């Protein structure tokens, strides 16, 4: 067995109603709280009210859209001006990624671009982040337990990561009740992201026994509940399953990396204006199928190839299921949810070459179980269009 390391958030709190305990979790925090929310901060009035009632000085900063250089710099300056000693983020993956970046940059001098992979100098963050609490309101990204923030760089047309072990949240507070009012479309593509992250972390060539167990359980939970979690009437058990699956996916990917789906999703997110989870969902069947063909033809003894049979069993409940059964299951799931193709999300054929080139060198692609050729990458995009 190869050596491995494992890390996650310092403290994880999960369950219906657990958001009501936030003030008590913050008892040791001294000084103002800088709270990032989605564009409609009123949606979280009840949770924010608990903080003010407990006597905390609260500064609220709404986040509009996915994080980029400008929005991160604005939020960081606001946090510094507030004198905040603790950062909270309540919202989807974009809000939490913004919060992680702000908590890190508030204590490190220098320009954000200098710390970014690929487009900047790749400088290390030398100072510990401010204490940071992540409170997800979608079940998908797992950002509440990862050590990076995905940031758009519009001039370069890419999304890259700010990354540091110190960016792991101090507290992850996962309350399924906060996801109950998600519109079906958002529930679908964030839920697909949760499922895909468990899948890719399990098949990653960097997986280990700990991530395997967590990813398998997350995949099982997502598979049994994603359809029910994305439609009326409200199914609270399904919502809780999907939140747990998202948590599992975040823990697993932070320690095992991902694969070709997320290898594409990062660069594509910088090329088209589409939600990350929606891009991932459009690539699920084409990427999984391409990996299966590549492993069968070039590396049938690869450990990830036998894991693909395990995936099929987890999804279908059939102990004799072959890997190809998973393809049919994914197709059926994709057709049952309100999802869009990559073409409907805005990608054009003329962008294939650029997308394939950028994706081949992306950090997530490095976890893929087998190296895919340029032809295979283009073929995936054609199938996803």
TrEMBL record:
User: Start and end of every Alcohol dehydrogenase iron-type/glycerol dehydrogenase GldA domain?
Assistant: 10-176
Keyword tags: NAD, Oxidoreductase
Fe-containing alcohol dehydrogenase-like C-terminal domain span: 188-385
Specify the domain of life of the species encoding this protein: Bacteria
Q: Please name the Pfam families in this protein's record.
A: ADH_Fe_C (PF25137), Fe-ADH (PF00465)
Q: Which GO terms describe its molecular function?
A: alcohol dehydrogenase (NAD+) activity; metal ion binding
Which PANTHER family does this chain map to?
Answer: ALCOHOL DEHYDROGENASE, ALCOHOL DEHYDROGENASE 4
Family recorded in the similarity comment: Belongs to the iron-containing alcohol dehydrogenase family.
> Per its record, how is this protein called by name?
Iron-containing alcohol dehydrogenase
Q: What organism, scientifically named, is this protein from?
A: Pelagicoccus mobilis
């Amino acid at each position: 067995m190869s050596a491995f390391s494992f890390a996650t958030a310092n403290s994880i709190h999960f369950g219906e109603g657990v958001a009501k305990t936030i003030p008590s979790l913050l008892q040791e925090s001294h000084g103002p709280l800088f709270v990032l929310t989605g564009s409609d901060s009123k949606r979280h009035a009840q949770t924010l009210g608990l903080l003010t009632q407990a006597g905390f000085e609260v500064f609220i900063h709404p986040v509009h859209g996915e994080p980029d250089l400008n929005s991160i710099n604005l939020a960081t300056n606001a946090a510094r001006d507030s004198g905040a000693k603790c950062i909270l983020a309540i919202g989807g993956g974009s809000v939490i990624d913004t919060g992680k970046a702000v908590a890190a940059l508030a204590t490190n001098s220098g320009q954000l671009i200098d710390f970014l992979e690929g487009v900047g100098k790749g400088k290390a963050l030398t100072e510990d982040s401010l204490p940071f609490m992540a409170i997800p309101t979608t079940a998908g990204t797992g950002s509440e337990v990862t050590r990076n923030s995905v940031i758009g760089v519009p001039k370069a047309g890419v999304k890259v990561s700010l990354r540091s072990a110190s960016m792991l949240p101090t507290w992850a507070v996962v309350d399924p009740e906060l996801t109950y009012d998600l519109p079906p479309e958002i529930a679908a593509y964030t839920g697909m992201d949760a499922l895909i992250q468990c899948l890719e972390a399990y098949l990653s060539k960097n997986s280990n026994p700990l991530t395997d167990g967590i990813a398998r359980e997350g995949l099982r939970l997502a598979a049994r509940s994603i359809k029910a979690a994305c439609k009326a009437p409200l199914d609270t058990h399904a919502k809780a399953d999907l939140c747990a699956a998202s948590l599992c996916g975040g823990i697993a990917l932070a320690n095992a990396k991902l694969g070709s789906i997320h290898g594409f999703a990062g660069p594509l997110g910088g090329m088209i204006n589409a939600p990350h989870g929606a891009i991932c969902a459009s690539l699920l069947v084409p990427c999984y199928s391409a990996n299966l063909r590549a492993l069968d033809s070039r590396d049938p003894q690869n450990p990830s190839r036998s894991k693909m049979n395990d995936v099929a069993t987890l999804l279908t409940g059939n102990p004799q299921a072959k890997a190809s059964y998973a393809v049919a299951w994914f197709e059926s799931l994709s057709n049952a949810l309100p999802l869009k193709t990559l073409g409907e999300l805005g990608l054009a054929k003329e962008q294939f070459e650029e997308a394939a080139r950028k994706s081949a060198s992306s950090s997530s692609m490095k976890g893929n179980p087998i190296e895919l050729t340029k032809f295979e990458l283009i073929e995936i995009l054609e199938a996803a269009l």
